[in-house]
Automatic annotation (TrEMBL):
Protein's UniProt name: ABC-2 family transporter protein
Alphabetically ordered keywords of this record: Membrane, Transmembrane, Transmembrane helix
Transmembrane annotation, as ranges: 21-38, 44-68, 89-111, 131-151, 163-191, 211-232
The keyword Glycosyltransferase is annotated on this UniProt entry: no
Length: 242
């Protein structure tokens, strides 16, 4: 466990030193202040909408993180860990922790805005379960986005421009998936494979409160999809070697 925690700490340091977090973080803050620039807003609907933006920004984060992984540094870390599996799944845990941190920030900023506005930002009082359920939804959305972005890894897709284009295209299709399947019902037989993020705003738009029986299946779906993307990436990396 100490080895994995050391790997996660190392990857955080590498990411922070690279300054590649600056642009996604700036976009993240702008998105939040734009979303909460009017009041009052629905607690449930606004957090569900945040999941879309968090997914997109996390996908950006995923692409920026894997761009730091050059062949030499990967090989050195694998030699130190004496296990390819430990390195790959340790990296996945790093992404998960980064996703949870993103979710915390996404909750902290509107809470602070709400407090600075005499708790008038939302259409009702913010409850502890709003924070808890919102955290789970945002974390799983962020993890799925990071996992998607990680498919742009140089050993998965060698051409960087093609990788970024593919991830961007999947991002766009994922966000408008519900509208596409409504306009072209036959497309659902193809689009089922893209990340299931677009259903969240519609599922929670009219809900005054979060309901566990609706939240947990959604969280499970997003997390399993993110885990599946991670497994695909790791399988490709281990098959192609260096």
């Amino acid at each position: 466990m100490r080895i994995i925690s050391g790997l996660i700490k190392y990857q955080y340091l590498q990411y922070l030193k690279s300054n590649k977090f600056v642009m996604p973080f700036a976009a993240f803050v702008v998105m939040l202040f734009t979303l909460y620039s009017t009041k009052p807003v629905s607690v449930v609907a606004s957090l569900a909408s945040c999941c879309l933006f968090v997914f997109l920004i996390s996908s950006w984060i995923g692409t920026s993180v894997c761009s730091l992984e050059d062949t030499a540094s990967e090989q050195i870390m694998i030699l130190r860990l004496r296990s390819t599996n430990k390195y790959d799944w340790g990296h996945a845990l790093f992404l998960l922790s980064l996703s949870m941190l993103t979710a915390l920030l996404c909750l902290l900023i509107p809470v602070l805005i709400n407090l600075s506005n005499s708790q008038m930002l939302f259409d009702r009082k913010l409850l502890p379960e709003d924070i808890i359920f919102g955290f789970f939804l945002l974390s799983s959305s962020a993890f799925m986005g990071c996992s998607l972005g990680e498919l742009s890894h140089p050993r998965v897709i060698k051409d960087r421009k093609s990788a970024l284009l593919m991830i961007t295209l999947v991002d766009i299709v994922s966000v408008i998936k519900t509208s596409l399947t409504a306009a072209f019902p036959v497309s659902k037989f193809i689009l089922w494979i893209v990340p299931p993020i677009s259903f969240l705003p519609d599922s929670f738009a009219k809900e005054p409160y979060f309901i566990g029986i609706k939240v947990f299946p959604a969280v499970l779906l997003l997390f399993i999809y993110g885990l599946a993307l991670t497994f695909v990436k790791i399988s490709i990396l281990q098959k192609r070697k260096f």
